[in-house]
Design brief:
The protein is of the alpha+beta class. It has one domain: Tetrahydropterin Synthase, Chain A (2-Layer Sandwich), CATH 3.30.479. The protein is built from two helices and four strands, in the order ββααββ. It has a four-stranded antiparallel sheet, covered by helices on one side. Helix 1 (51-65) crosses helix 2 (82-96). The longest helix has 15 residues, at 51-65.
Length: 122
C-alpha cells in the first residue's frame, strides 16, 4: 500500500451556533489542511498520484475558503466545525480530480487540534 500527502493552508472566520462556549462567538483560525491519497498501484512513472495534481486541487479548494466567514457556506449547516470542513474539502477535491484515490483529509484549527475525515471505499 502506498500513501502520499500534500499540505495547504487558509485563514477563515467562523462561529458555532449550537455550541455553548467561547467558540459560539465569531473568531478565526489559520487552518492547516493535509490531503492523503492511498492505493496499491503505481502508474507507469512509478507514482501513485502526481504530487502536483493533488496539491493543485487542494490549493484550489482552500482558496475557496480563504479569508471568508465559513458560516456563509450553506453546506456547513450553520456550524462549520473542523469535521464538516474536512468533509467539504474531501468532497471538493474528489469532484475536481475524481481519479485521485483520496483517502483522508485532516483539518488543523491549531497545531494541536485536528479533525480527520476518511471515506471508506469499500
Amino acid at each position: 500500500m502506498y500513501e502520499i500527502r500534500v499540505e495547504a493552508d487558509f485563514a477563515a472566520a467562523h462561529f458555532l451556533n449550537d455550541y455553548h462556549g467561547k467558540c459560539e462567538r465569531l473568531h478565526g483560525h489559520n487552518y492547516r489542511v493535509l490531503a492523503h491519497a492511498r492505493g496499491n498501484d503505481l502508474d507507469s512513472g512509478g507514482m501513485l498520484v502526481d504530487f502536483g495534481v493533488l496539491k493543485t486541487a487542494l490549493r484550489a479548494v482552500c482558496a475557496e475558503l480563504d479569508h471568508r466567514n465559513l458560516n456563509d457556506f450553506d453546506v456547513f449547516e450553520r456550524n462549520p466545525s473542523a469535521e464538516r470542513i474536512a468533509t467539504y474539502i474531501f468532497d471538493r477535491i474528489a469532484t475536481l480530480e475524481p481519479g485521485i484515490p483520496l483517502y483522508a483529509v485532516d483539518v488543523y484549527e491549531t497545531p494541536t487540534s485536528r479533525a480527520r475525515y476518511v471515506r471508506d471505499r469499500a
